[in-house]
Amino acid sequence: MDLKSKTIEAVSINTIRAFAMDAVQKANSGHPGTPMSMAPVAYTIYTKFLRHNPDNPDWRDRDRFVLSAGHASMLQYALLHLTGYDLTMEDIKNFRQWESRTPGHPEHFLTPGVETTTGPLGQGFANGVGMALAERFLAGRYNRIGHEVVNHHIYAICSDGDLMEGVAQEAASIAGQNSLGKLVYIYDDNRITIDGTTALSFDQEDKGKRFEALGWHVQRVGDPEDLEALEEALTNARDEEERPSLVIVRSHIAYPAPHAQDTAAAHGSALGEDEVRLAKEAMGFDPDEHFYVADEVYEHMNMIGRGRELEEEWNGRFAAWREDFPELAEEWERAWSGRPEPGYEEKLPRWDPEDTEKLATRKAGAAAMSAFENYTPTMIGGAADLVNSTSTAFKGGGMFSSTHVGRNIAWGVREHGMGSCVNGIAVHGGMVRPYGSTFLIFSDYMRPAVRLSALMGIPVAWVYTHDSVGLGEDGPTHQPVEHYMTLRAIPNMTVIRPADPNETSMAWRLTLEAEGPVAMLLTRQNVPVLDPEAAKGALRGAYTLAGSGEPDAILIGTGSEVAVALEARDLLADRGVSARVVSMPSWEVFEKQDRGYKDSVLPPSVETRVSVEAGVTLGWERYVGFKGASVGIERFGASAPGETVLNELGINPENVANKALELLGRSERVGESEGTPAVEDTAPEEGHS
């Protein structure tokens, strides 16, 4: 393509470049280089391949576009504006400004047409894989012979940085393993990172051969200005149904800026007024015009008419399908609401302590999932190679594979890829509360994805088991201690640590009805079964489990330590101390309650408070106050039977009771022989080594 050509294609592409330069220059912040070099690619995708309707960005069977190279956000904003989305010129000019709809990196739910939040490299790549999993599952569940209501592709632009990140490798492996042929990814091979040329860090491997080894279909385009070659490659990629596709495009960052091209400076800094003028002159544009769009460009690039036609055609097919399959159509609508089907609450299991003395909450979670399985027909997920340990499979749901669309996904030992793919399944839509599961300690491997789920406020479930040092012999490498607090520290994240099987049923109910992401923390070891009626209080985040009237002291526990608090209460009663036990499975849910309820659970007049939780105590001062105390673990664990580890680290009824006596100014102490830890170990079980 001649840079100064006056064809409508050339002028449109150069308009995208000018937008990127002007917006970054005005903000004096941003990444102009990639939007400039990849303008022909994005133009081709949005105007010739993407089946989308700017007038209805939420059309369910639209193609999805993911800018995994989120730093190039102005590339996407320019395309959204020019193709007719509700993104105004004023929005473009407010790039990277307070409360603008054009933030530094694309944010889901903020900008129309942005499918997912990207910026942390590799995340968008993996989100797209999740979207393809969702597309495959929905097509398998709802399409019928002669009636196709789900058939769309996921396009993405990714960068050198994306391919360097381990999460992209994990997700690419998942995509190849499952033959996700609806993926069409374009790799911007510009060979520049912030630190300089990729010769410093990323030129020894053949990226194409790597992806071919993963089961991808790989093509190469030597010049993004060659629109015919680009269109041919994208057509081949779209038509490849058996393998995900990667098109490697050799671009030159900041083209056609004469001095900035192929420099690291063009990656993350404004070009400067002089360089912008030179680049515009090279394109045949007036250097004194800013944010200029010719009328013919608007007319040429507007996709509203085409998009309406595409959606109307789909609406006709959908109406015929709905008429022939009315019950399936009802299920479809409920699935797209993101809610389980009505009546599932009555099916959740409950346990009578007279019938079941103890049970691990991970096992209770499995029973709950079996109970609501038929009420969440599009809920899919799995564990990171630990499904038999986390107990998070839908029995009879089948395995997801290259040939079958089962509900259970074998993520393999890929926690980060799992988390980011689950996010992609959720933002796709039509999927009720997708989930990922592993040991709580391995939430560290997937934290970027967990954080992004909270940033987007998407309905996903993170099911973490083996939630304390009580897991035992695997030792401190596998025993979480800081993890409760690190998860609670994430804004918009609801963390639930149920005390027993009945609270676990309530935890799943909270999870299925929550607006955003939920992290559920479950035990490996057996814990005592509590009163099923009392456990309904878990729905309010915290509740009085034992004790009436105004107590001398309040003992607050979470998870397996609630049983410790109950035994400590008995020890205190023997010494004439009246103690209330509060089970607090979720700080976040409790904080949403009204002041009257919170004060009824934690009366302000009772200042003698002791919290007990098998983790770091940072943060518990919120509930115990400056006159209270916390029993926790301020060190790493140890390799020994779980009961021994808990007892040696002070997570026992005696220690809790003694803390309360100390706060009350009582001199007597409970001896170690007078109580035993309220846990029960289970058979040895291996995790990742």
Describe the structure.
The chain is α/β, with parallel strands linked by helices and 689 residues long. It folds into three domains: 280 residues, 3-Layer(aba) Sandwich (Rossmann fold); 185 residues, 3-Layer(aba) Sandwich (Rossmann fold), CATH 3.40.50.970; 135 residues, 3-Layer(aba) Sandwich (Rossmann fold). Helix content is 40%, strand content 11%. The protein has a five-stranded parallel beta sheet, sandwiched between helices. α10 links the parallel β6 and β7. α23 packs across α28. The longest helix has 21 residues. It is elongated. About 2% of the residues have low confidence.
Key terms for this structure?
single chain, 689 residues, alpha/beta, Rossmann fold, 3 domains, 5-stranded parallel β-sheet, 28 helices, 19 strands, elongated
Describe the structure concisely.
It contains 28 helices and 19 strands. The protein has a 5-stranded parallel beta sheet with strand order 1-2-3-7-6, with helices on both faces. Strands 9-10-11-13-12 form a 5-stranded parallel beta sheet, with helices on both faces. Strands 15-17-16-18-19 form a 5-stranded mixed beta sheet.
